[in-house]
Predict the structure.
Amino acid sequence: MIKRNISIALPVTGDDEWHAVQEPLMAGWLTQGPKVAEFEAAFAARHKAAYALATTSCTSALHLILAALDIGPGDEVIVPAFTWVATANVVIYCGAKPVFVDVDRTTFNLDPSCLEKKLTARTKAIIAVHLFGLCSDIDAIKKVAPGIPIIEDAACAAGARYQGRSAGILGEAAAFSFHPRKSITTGEGGMVTTNDAALAEMVNMLRNHGASVSEEQRHSGPRPYILPDFNLVGFNYRMTDLQGAVGLVQLNKLDRFIGERHQWADYYTRELASIKWLRTPVTPDGYEHGWQSFVCYIDENRAPMARNVIMQALHDRGISTRPGTHAVHMLGLYQQKYGLTPDDYPAARDCDRFSMAIPLHNRMSADDYAYVVAALHDLR
Ligand SMILES: Cc1ncc(COP(=O)(O)O)c(C=O)c1O
């Protein structure tokens, strides 16, 4: 078999995106403006949200939501222990404390049965991560923690659905990512969605230095020469109109991208079922996976070799793999700052050690998928 070179992820960008960026470039309005507004309107419609506000990344989107909810020193925010470090870092940005909760080894998402004992009078919000495109069990979380605001970390979940509802409107607010490893991309970029008008207004001001009026409103209004008032310490988290133009094009392709990924995820599930040491992703009833990535779980007791040796063997055959993500409580910063040890969150620890994403993206051919399947079957 000829060795291939298969990336873990590759964005699909080309002529359409290239043509789209020419419009703002020629018009000369380069930062948050008409293209961002169009992208926001389309994204809100696609996710059935009343408001969508574009940002520089999912990290800044999460930060804005926490800041808009007035989370600060003395407050605690629940974060699943197995997620990308940004989910917890944004809590520290606000001067609050991330309180970890263990995850479910099957779904990789926050385990609602571990939540209750972590709630205190200081708990101000729960960040529910929809990891790899599978929504968190929001109804179960709400049952355990009634009345506590839920923020969706929907970095990986554009287009995903839960019990008939879109990711993005399952809690108080949600944050999406358009990093190139996500299903749709603007290079870097993020989006806040919410149905709460006051929260949307606060996010809108905070992303633009706390200005009471956006630059676009000011420039197109009757007195563009009057600078806005500033009553808040805000940030510069504005998306550029170049990204907005690319985002619009990408959003129109989202359903196709997810449909193709779904088809190949089914193929992997079928073709890998006989490998008893490899568990493919599980989609519980009532969930529609967004398929940001295809993350397997390795049973090292039955596997022919350790997870990292498997990843090396696949790497040697030109197949990129990655751990699903990391256990944040095991990262140096978090161990030192909060005195945590790996065994504090055993399921997150195991997911960190035994998860493995295999390539799933919209630039793989049928032969690429067959090559990955054959390479996994060859391991012994
Ligand atoms: C679960 C999760 N949250 C947050 C982020 C941060 O997204 P961004 O890179 O857009 O800031 C990521 C990125 O990988 C992620 O996977």
Remarks:
- The CA atoms of residues 260 and 362 lie 7 Å apart.
- The pocket of pyridoxal-5'-phosphate is lined by residues 57-59, 83-84, 86-87, 129, 153, 155-156, 177, 179, 190 (CB under 6 Å).
- The two ends are 17 Å apart (CA to CA).
- The mean pLDDT is 97.
